[in-house]
Amino acid sequence: MNLLVCRYAIRPGMPSPILDLEVANAVADGNVYRLFPDNSDVLDKNNGMMMGSLVEVDELEITVIVDNEVDVMSAISSGTVEDTRRFPDIATGESKVMQVGELSLNVMPMESICCGAHGLSVLVTANRGGIKRSLLFDTGPEEAVWAENAKRLGIDFGSIDLIQLSHWHRDHSGGMLKAVQMISKAKESASESLSPVIVDLHPDRPEYRGFMIKGQPISFPADPSFAEVRAAGGAVMKSAAAHTVLDDMFLISGFIESSNDYENGLRGGIRISSIEKGWEKDEEMADERFLMCNVKGKGIVMFTGCSHRGVVNASRNAVDSLGGSVPLYAVLGGYHLVGNTQLQVEETIKDLKALDPKILLPGHCSGWRAKYEIEKQMPGRLVPCTVGSKIRI
Questions:
Q1: Where are the domains of the chain?
Q2: 332: closest CA among 164, 137, 89, 90?
Q3: Which class in CATH covers the domain with range 53-392?
Q4: Measured on CA atoms in the order 291, 296, 300, 301, is the torsion positive or negative?
Q5: In Gene Ontology terms, what is one molecular function of this protein (predicted)?
């Protein structure tokens, strides 16, 4: 069973890949690995080095495994999306019968409700003609919350084909090693192909990343290393270029180009590229990448981890990547407006409105001001992106 079709957009001057026979021979079903000079374990079934065309999919199933916010009760505007895991669904579908004397009680277990955490992880399953492919977008801040929420949601770990990290920040990579281990174990138990889960990463991984706060450098814990991902059972695929994956149902972006003068990266961002150099300024966040799909009859559904390079920039890049011919339908994830001024929030939402998305699903680092402004400028288009949501588009 071929799990992955991956095609790349190659920039002039990029080196040609080198076939690694040891890795290729480890795959029993005919898939071919390519080893890049940066030691990527790149699975490329067609030996093709041009980016494939993003195909239309019939449907997306989206499960929010990790988000900052817990809210299973807020109503969803009619005509937007179908969310199959609101409070009434949990209460009626996951309750257990408890006998108390002669009385039978339908008891909703509180452990059915997921836990919030500062981070993001979203499972996206695309369906095209009955063929389904599943991609895990980010893995939240820590292993325990990712694993527990995934279990509560009944995630089919063995069905996950690929993990994409949006950018190197621990609140998006913290659950990665556990996710790789659980997915690998599920595939082994199901006696599936020996092809490991692919972990799609930007090659420019800092040793440490953090912020300047009150004049003091504060570091995140280190992201998982490439070696740790491999040791957990994943196949590392490094790419800074835009490429399609999983039968061309998903497009992972390259560098997000700027299109305005107010989305200027992460203020106060710092990094350590090597211990010898110490802390350096790192506000550009050049490694950030969005994910997108093209849903038939709807348009572009874009997933963004934090939008450090700007949610408007990312949205415009997504539309431009398909030549401007496909409308923007939805934007899900972190808009990173939580620390912005009210004027900046208003400007951002005004420019998003100009792209005419039909639904907006701000989560993680978006902040209440952004949600308020969306509902103010585009009433009826705001949809909760809270942990445990199961959304169908």
A1: 53-392
A2: 137
A3: alpha beta
A4: negative
A5: hydrolase activity
Which token pair is 146?
């990712």
Q: Which residues contact 93 (CB under 8 A, 6 or more apart)?
A: none
Closest CA to 127 of 46, 43, 247: 247
The first and second tokens of residue 115, run together, are 């836990």
Model confidence, pTM: 0.88
Q: Do 19 and 62 meet the contact criterion of CB atoms below 8 Å apart?
A: no
pLDDT tens string for the chain (393 positions)? Answer: 344 445 544 333 333 332 222 233 333 333 333 333 345 555 443 333 345 699 999 999 999 999 999 998 888 887 888 888 888 888 888 888 999 999 999 998 888 899 999 999 999 999 999 999 999 999 999 999 999 999 999 999 999 999 999 999 999 999 999 999 999 999 988 875 567 899 999 999 999 999 999 999 999 999 999 999 999 999 999 999 999 999 999 999 999 999 999 998 999 999 999 999 999 999 999 999 999 999 999 999 999 999 999 999 999 999 999 999 999 999 999 999 998 789 999 999 999 999 999 999 999 999 999 999 999 999 999 998 999 999 999
Distance, CA of 187 to CA of 139 (rounded, Å) = 19
Beta bridge partners of 106: 97
